[in-house]
C-alpha cells in the first residue's frame, strides 16, 4: 500500500507539469449510464465535476464521493453542475452496481461506464492514470473471475459548459475547500457571483509549527506499531473533536458505514477497547445517521466503542488523512503517529500504549 501511494504521488507531480496544457483542451467522451449512451453533450449548459474510480475501492473513491455529497448539499447553485463518477473497472462495475454505489452518497451523482477504449480515451484527455495488477504483474485486459487489483490517480476535474477542462483538485481538498472553489465559479444562481465564503475553521487556527516529539520512556523511544508513521505536524485532539477524551494516550479511528475495511476492523478495535487500561480507544464516524450506527453496533455486538459521530469530513483534512479507514495515536493531546489503512493486529498497539502511558 505504501508503494502504491508513493507511485500515486509521482503521478500527481507529473500531472502538475502537464495540467497547464491540458486545461486548454476540449473534453469529449462516449460512455453510458442507466438510461443509455452519454456524451459530453448530454448535460447542456452545465459544469461537470468528474472523478474516476471503482466501486470496490477501499478508501479514495468513497472519500471522494462522500465529499461530493457534502458539496452538493452546500453549494449555493448546485443546479449548475453535474457530479459524475466514471468507473475504471467496467469488468466488475455494471451500470446497476455503479449507480447503486453513487446514489448511496447523493442521488445527483451519476455513475458512467463504457467500453474500455472509451474510458481510456477520457482518462488520456484528463491526464488521469489507471491500471490493473495480479500477482505483482501488470494486467492489460482484466477478465471476469480474475483476482486483480486496481490502481488509479486521485484527482477531481472541473469541466466547463464549453467542455474545456477548467481546473483540477486534489481529492484531499476537503468538502469546504471544494465548495468554496466551486461557489466562485458557479455563482449564487441569481445572476451574480456567490458571496465571499468565510474561511474554513481549520484555516483560522494558528497552524502548529512542529510535530509532537517522539514519546520516550527513559532513554528509549516507544516503538511505533507496524504501519504507523510519526506525525509530520502537530495536531491537537481538541481541535479534531469537540469533546475530546482527556486520557494521556488516545487511539482515534475514523470510519464510515460505506467503508468496508472500516467495518471489518471494528470488532478488533472493540476487543482492544475492552482490554485497555493504558489507552482510550475512540472511534469517530463520518456523517452517518445515529440510528444506522446504532443498528450496526447492535448487529456486530460492539459494546466497548463509543458511537461518536461528526457531520463533516474536514477532520480528514486536519489529520492529513488520505481516506478511510484512518487511525491516529495521540499522546498528551497531540498527534504522535498515524496509519492509513485497516487495523488487523492490536498487540503492538497495546505495547505502544503501555510505553507511552509510562513516559514522562
UniProtKB/TrEMBL annotation:
Pfam families: SCO1-SenC (PF02630), Thioredoxin (PF00085)
Signal peptide per UniProt: 1-24
Domain Thioredoxin residue range list: 201-358
Family label: Belongs to the SCO1/2 family.
CDD domains: SCO, TlpA_like_family
Molecular function per GO: disulfide oxidoreductase activity; metal ion binding
Tree of life domain: Bacteria
PANTHER family registered for this protein in UniProt: ELECTRON TRANSPORT PROTIN SCO1/SENC FAMILY MEMBER, LINALOOL DEHYDRATASE_ISOMERASE DOMAIN-CONTAINING PROTEIN
Positions that bind Cu cation: 57, 61, 152
Originating organism: Ottowia cancrivicina
Region called Disordered, residue ranges: 189-211
Keyword terms: Copper, Disulfide bond, Metal-binding, Redox-active center, Signal
Record-linked Gene3D superfamilies: Glutaredoxin
Annotated protein name in UniProt: SCO family protein
InterPro entries: SCO1/SenC, Thioredoxin-like_sf, Thioredoxin_CS, Thioredoxin_domain
Keyword NAD assigned: no
Keyword Metal-binding recorded: yes
Disulfide linkage: 57-61
Amino acid at each position: 500500500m505504501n508503494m502504491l501511494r508513493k507511485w500515486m504521488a509521482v503521478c500527481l507531480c507529473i500531472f502538475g507539469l502537464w495540467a497547464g496544457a491540458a486545461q486548454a483542451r476540449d473534453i469529449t467522451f462516449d460512455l453510458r449510464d442507466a438510461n443509455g449512451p452519454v456524451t459530453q453533450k448530454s448535460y447542456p449548459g452545465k459544469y461537470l465535476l468528474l472523478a474516476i474510480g471503482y466501486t470496490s475501492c477501499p478508501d479514495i473513491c468513497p472519500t471522494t464521493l462522500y465529499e461530493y455529497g457534502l458539496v452538493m448539499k452546500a453549494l449555493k447553485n448546485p443546479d449548475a453542475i453535474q457530479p459524475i463518477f466514471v468507473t475504471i473497472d467496467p469488468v466488475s462495475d455494471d451500470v446497476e452496481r455503479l449507480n447503486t454505489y453513487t446514489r448511496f452518497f447523493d442521488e445527483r451523482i451519476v455513475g458512467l461506464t463504457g467500453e474500455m477504449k472509451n474510458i481510456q480515451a477520457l482518462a488520456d484527455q484528463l491526464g488521469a492514470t489507471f491500471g490493473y495488477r495480479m500477482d505483482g504483474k501488470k494486467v492489460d485486459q482484466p477478465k471476469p473471475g480474475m483476482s486483480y487489483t486496481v490502481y488509479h490517480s486521485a484527482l477531481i476535474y472541473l469541466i466547463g459548459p464549453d467542455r474545456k477542462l477548467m481546473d483540477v483538485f486534489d481529492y484531499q481538498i476537503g468538502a469546504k475547500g471544494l465548495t468554496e472553489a466551486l461557489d466562485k465559479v458557479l455563482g449564487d444562481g441569481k445572476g451574480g457571483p456567490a458571496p465571499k465564503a468565510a474561511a474554513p475553521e481549520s484555516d483560522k487556527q494558528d497552524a502548529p509549527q512542529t510535530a509532537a516529539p517522539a514519546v520516550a520512556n527513559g532513554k528509549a523511544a516507544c516503538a511505533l506499531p507496524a504501519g504507523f508513521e510519526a506525525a509530520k505536524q502537530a495536531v491537537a485532539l481538541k481541535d479534531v473533536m469537540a469533546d475530546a477524551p482527556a486520557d494521556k494516550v488516545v487511539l482515534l479511528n475514523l470510519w464510515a458505514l460505506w467503508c468496508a475495511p472500516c467495518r471489518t476492523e471494528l470488532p478488533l478495535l472493540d476487543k482492544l477497547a475492552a482490554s485497555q487500561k493504558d489507552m482510550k480507544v475512540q472511534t469517530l464516524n463520518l456523517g452517518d445517521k445515529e440510528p444506522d450506527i446504532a443498528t450496526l453496533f447492535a448487529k456486530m455486538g460492539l459494546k466497548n466503542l463509543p458511537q461518536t459521530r461528526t457531520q463533516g469530513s474536514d477532520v480528514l483534512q486536519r489529520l492529513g488523512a488520505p481516506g478511510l479507514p484512518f487511525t491516529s495515536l495521540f499522546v498528551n493531546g497531540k498527534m504522535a503517529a498515524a496509519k492509513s489503512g485497516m487495523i488487523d493486529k492490536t498487540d503492538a498497539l497495546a505495547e505502544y500504549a503501555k510505553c507511552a502511558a509510562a513516559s514522562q
